[in-house]
Design a protein that fits this description.
single chain, 433 residues, alpha/beta, six-stranded antiparallel sheet
């Protein structure tokens, strides 16, 4: 048989095996079984049926047939092999036969497909249901989390014109450390030392960048320098941060239920966190009115707090923060808002994606004060792109020569940063992760 004929034959056998397995299932007895026992029982039954239905198939093909049916019944169908691939960082489904994945910063088609739109919708609903959420015409979009911590966004008609859309952001099974990010070339060793000192010295840090550049990954890596006995409260839409310590409190927002009540926003959780005696507050992403509460926390004794924000540069991040405060309904003069930001944020770390897909710390800037043009910053470290040859980006990390004003602040806390970290010139390091 040709490849196309074989694929069609396997697809037909898969549908038939699924139908026979469902017909043979005793639902009354199944409800009383633990999930593992039920899956094991169905697997044995599926193997027997596959042996009978696919006599002309090779052993490997029958195995894939059984695995595919069990994935459809108990797991996430065609997505299972992608979720098992540690190199896949994003899974993007825009149609039954339009599945793409990101590996090492590059999007590529995935060799999997759904039977039809109904099959895709079934998988979306299973993901959402298992996360304790719901998705239907009244609530056609949802954010959720898979058991392994992967972040899921789903949107269906009528909002999604061309059918269900599914996006899954995956995270390494083991959180990346600062040392590992240096090995991967995402930042220079000198920048890593600067970040470790800034975290230990309780500077307030804003991690900025576009979607998927690794803001949360770097925040998580930098947080390894937090004191083991500090009380840390994390606030996220979908819990991704994996911190270690004796006093880690993880809070997660909640969407409104079908009656439209019960919503808990990031701002609600930030306000509540202030009553929990935190040493530091880590907010997964600032995107609205909670920015004011976050600035308030940073300005009122919760030094060393960190958050992320979408922006095209470090300077743009501060402008966007200013806009969020203004749009949040805070009736203050612009100069006051800018002063509030300048006194709250000490360091902005901007991450960028190189033309070949690799990700780097594009710049680290110190926030100084306010002048007539806005919040004033001083770049300390940056990545300079030199050229793109044969599809590969070439560049280097460098120090600007500016020495940060917070060195004395760190010194009195027992943290000495070598001034040579800031001497103008190239910094050793790779060129992108």
């Amino acid at each position: 048989m040709s490849g196309a004929t074989t694929a069609a034959r396997l697809a037909e056998l898969r549908r038939e095996l699924h139908q026979k397995l469902v017909q043979a299932l005793d639902y009354g007895a199944a409800e009383k079984l633990e999930r593992e026992v039920l899956v094991s029982s169905c697997e044995a039954r599926a193997r027997a049926l596959a042996q009978d239905l696919g006599r002309d198939l090779a052993a490997g093909e029958r195995e894939r047939l059984v695995s595919g049916v069990l994935d459809d019944m108990f797991r996430l169908g065609p997505l299972e092999p992608l979720l098992a691939d540690d190199e896949v960082s994003d899974i993007l489904v825009s149609g039954p036969r339009k599945v793409h994945v990101e590996r090492r910063g590059v999007l590529e088609p995935a060799p999997v497909e759904f039977r039809d739109e109904a099959h895709l919708l079934h998988v979306v609903q299973r993901i959402v249901r298992n996360a304790g959420r719901r998705i239907d015409e009244k609530s056609p979009m949802v954010d959720a989390r898979l058991p392994d911590g992967s972040r899921v966004n789903a949107i269906i008609p009528p909002l999604a014109v061309d059918g269900p859309q599914l996006s899954i952001r995956r995270f390494p099974r083991r959180a990346l450390t600062i040392e590992r990010l240096v090995e991967l070339g995402a930042l220079a060793p000198a920048s890593a030392e600067l970040l470790r000192g800034a975290v230990r010295g309780r500077l307030n840090i804003l991690f900025a960048g576009g979607a998927g550049v690794g803001k949360t990954t770097l925040l998580n890596a930098a947080s390894s320098s937090l004191g083991p006995r500090e009380r840390i409260v994390t606030i996220e839409d979908a819990a991704e941060l994996r911190l270690e310590g004796e006093q880690i409190v993880r809070l997660e927002t909640r969407a409104a239920n079908i009656e439209g009540v019960g919503e808990t926003t990031t701002r609600d959780l930030v306000r509540n966190a202030l009553r929990m005696r935190p040493d530091r507050i880590l907010v997964g992403e600032c995107r609205g009115a909670e920015a004011f509460d976050m600035m308030q926390a940073m300005n009122t004794g919760h030094e060393g707090s960190m958050t992320t924000l979408h922006a095209n540069s470090a300077r743009d991040a501060l402008v966007r923060l200013e806009s969020m405060l203004a749009m949040g309904g805070f009736d203050m003069p612009v100069a006051v808002l800018r002063g509030y930001i300048a006194s709250a944020i000490h360091l902005v770390v901007h991450l960028a994606r190189l033309p070949d897909g690799r990700r780097v710390v594009g710049e680290i800037v110190e926030v100084l004060d306010v002048d007539d043009h806005g919040v004033r910053v001083e770049p300390l470290h940056r990545h300079r792109l030199a050229a793109v040859r044969e599809g590969k980006a070439e560049g280097r990390f460098e120090a600007t020569g500016a020495e940060p004003t917070f060195l004395e602040h760190l010194r009195v806390r027992g943290i000495e940063l070598d001034r040579r970290l800031f001497a103008a010139g190239a910094l050793p390091g790779g060129s992108g992760a």
